Amino acid sequence: MSDILLRVDGEVEAPLELTFEHFAEFPDAEQVADISRFHPKRQGDGVTLESVLQRVRPTDQATYLTLHATADDFAASIPLEAIRGEGIVVYQLQGQPLPVSNGGPIRFLIKNPAACHTDELDDCANVKFVDRIELTSGKGRDTRPENDEDHEELHRGQD
Ligand SMILES: Nc1nc2c(c(=O)[nH]1)N[C@H]1C(S)=C(S)[C@@H](COP(=O)(O)O)O[C@H]1N2
Ligand SMILES: [Mo]
Questions:
Q1: How far is CA 113 from the centre of its chain?
Q2: Pocket probe mutation, ligand 1, options 6, 127, 132, 149, max atoms within 8 Å of Cβ
Q3: Does 159 fall in a domain?
Q4: Number of neighbours of residue 121 by Cβ within 10 angstroms
Q5: Residue 152 needs a FRET pair 20 to 30 A away by CA distance; which of 2, 14, 104, 144 works?
């Protein structure tokens, strides 16, 4: 049995726990090869967020999608309808689990994010080290910095 990398739960009909092998076995139509097509400085392959949502089936109450990273206690909560067609769950680089240096083992990515701190679907919601996606009724936990000063401070540690 290999490690569970991602739990998907909350306002869903069928909560799910996913390993690297589960992601690798998603059909081709659900795979997103080479994220550098969307983000030139980022690398790896993923599956569409939609393909994960289809498996868990969000309830009618689910209005937000909350991304949790236990590793550094980071979270972002974004409106479900807005993110549905835009999200990618990145899980591998050259056939291996996505390295921590790339935000792995699981990294969330928005295809066309707004600049940091300008929208709910901004670059800051491209959560690294995601280990839980929680569907919520209303906005969930969100630790994204709310002002420029805090945001700069966060970036100083990671860029
Ligand atoms: N787990 C986690 N994810 C995170 C962050 C963080 O501090 N922790 N920072 C966010 C912010 S503010 C930005 S702008 C992007 C930066 O992504 P990059 O490191 O690939 O440039 O990651 C986002 N994801
Ligand atoms: Mo950011």
A1: 12
A2: 127
A3: no
A4: 20
A5: 104
Contacts of 73 by beta carbon, 8 Å cutoff, 6+ apart: 143
Report H helices in 7-147. Answer: 20-24, 49-56, 80-83
pTM of the complete model: 0.96
Structure tokens at 134: 């929680």
Query: Is residue 158, in this structure, part of any structural domain at all?
Result: no
Measured CA to CA, the distance from residue 69 to residue 130 in angstroms comes to: 4
Q: How far apart are alpha carbons 103 and 108 in whole angstroms?
A: 9
User: Quick one: which atom of ligand 1 is closest to the CA of 144?
Assistant: 12
**Is 39 inside a domain boundary?**
yes
Cβ(101) – ligand 1 distance below 6 Å: no
The parent domain of residue 134 ranges over: 4-138+146-151
In a domain, 125, yes or no: yes
Q: Are 45 and 32 contacting, i.e. CB atoms less than 8 angstroms apart?
A: yes
Number of domains in the chain: 1
pLDDT digits (tens, 9 = 90+) for 43-78: 999 999 999 999 999 999 999 999 999 999 999 999
Does any ligand 1 atom lie closer than 6 A to the CB of residue 76? no
Beta bridge partners of 107: 90
